[in-house]
Amino acid sequence: MTPAADHTELLALRDALRDFAEARDWGQFHTPKNLAMALIGEAAEVVEHFQWRTAEESARLPDPDCAEVALELADVLLYLVRLADVLDIDLADAARRKLAINEARYPAEKAHGRADKYTRL
Amino acid sequence: MTPAADHTELLALRDALRDFAEARDWGQFHTPKNLAMALIGEAAEVVEHFQWRTAEESARLPDPDCAEVALELADVLLYLVRLADVLDIDLADAARRKLAINEARYPAEKAHGRADKYTRL
Amino acid sequence: MTPAADHTELLALRDALRDFAEARDWGQFHTPKNLAMALIGEAAEVVEHFQWRTAEESARLPDPDCAEVALELADVLLYLVRLADVLDIDLADAARRKLAINEARYPAEKAHGRADKYTRL
Amino acid sequence: MTPAADHTELLALRDALRDFAEARDWGQFHTPKNLAMALIGEAAEVVEHFQWRTAEESARLPDPDCAEVALELADVLLYLVRLADVLDIDLADAARRKLAINEARYPAEKAHGRADKYTRL
Prior knowledge:
The structure is a homotetramer. By secondary structure, chain A is an all-alpha fold. Chain A has seven helices and no strands. The first copy, chain A, has a single domain, classed as Orthogonal Bundle (Helix Hairpins). Chain A is 70% helix and 0% strand. In chain A, α1 crosses α4 (63-86) and α2 (32-48) packs antiparallel against α4. The longest helix of chain A is centred in the middle third of the chain and has 24 residues, at 63-86. Chains in contact: A-B, A-C, A-D, B-C, B-D, C-D. Chains A, B, C, D: It comes from Denitromonas iodatirespirans. Chains A, B, C, D: This is Nucleotide pyrophosphohydrolase. Chains A, B, C, D: One of its GO terms (biological process) is nucleoside triphosphate catabolic process.
């Protein structure tokens, strides 16, 4: 990522969450263990929106439900950014490196349309 | 987010994931249900790194473990961005709106240092 | 459940897990926080077996996969029994009470075949 | 488990859940994918009770909270039993087999008090 003058999204969120926690003296609760638990809790709230829906219904959510899911996805992102910060991990850099790893692990010409490769995580 | 000419991080990841899936014809597996399941699976891999560690050990991870956790956090971000895209949800916008909701729900002067408010999600 | 002389399954598992942990001096790791994290980690391993499969494929797992899923379900049960024990919770009794609550919350004549009630947990 | 005339706990729960689902025509929603998602959702509700608590607070839950956790553990057990049934898996047998595998994998004399072995799941 080119070093730009403008603040990137993930860094802006990181800073906003630092301010948020500091203003409330909530840093004491933000241990990596706790944040990891909060992260998976929010991921579960995303899962709940789809658990009784069919694959088709999941792809055509009514607007109110989609709006709720958007906020649950937001919760996951917020805890993810906060956890990365507390662990001093560069999240954007890690994401780019993982993409590169995936590109190498699943070469397009070999992995095309195949479920078996894709399921063997 | 100001409409800027340069591609933002989250949009860049979104586009990279679109290309990745298309090149492998994996869109068929990327239903919201499946992606939600993959998302929580990756969150669980983050949790696993901390489940037997104490709060103190969790905050002082050895470098190799921290490097592994970085890639697990990356996996969560990648599936999160992909799921938002498939649902046509603007993730960055949702995150900013949720931050604002949290600011209003937990006013700094009332929520300061208190665990009870913070636990009542 | 009638008070029987023979040891019930859940109590037998509870005792076996107590012996297992004690013999290895692992009680120190079995705090409720840690066990809750381990529990959800195992649930995630169950989810992983189905995340890329269609609903139909999920219902017709090949034998080797089914055997693996059986052991993942076992892992969930073992951590569940251990966590209940550490919290001094009677798991079998709680299950019966929750069934009764569900019976009252979703009367058969009203809830028949309806997804909306069932999704509003 | 000795073949006994009296119905075991897990089998009794299995049958009660079969009746419950049938009376409401909810079998259509009980695909393995959906049940796996419901299972992890309930595990997340257990995790939520502990995420902001310290290890010590987690071990000394106030009675009302403990009562709530008991019902969450019950939810996990109910979905676990239901999922095993839908997959035609003998849950009690799988649990006993997994215990035996764990006994062999972590010999007491070698695994005693050591966190490293225990974390390498």
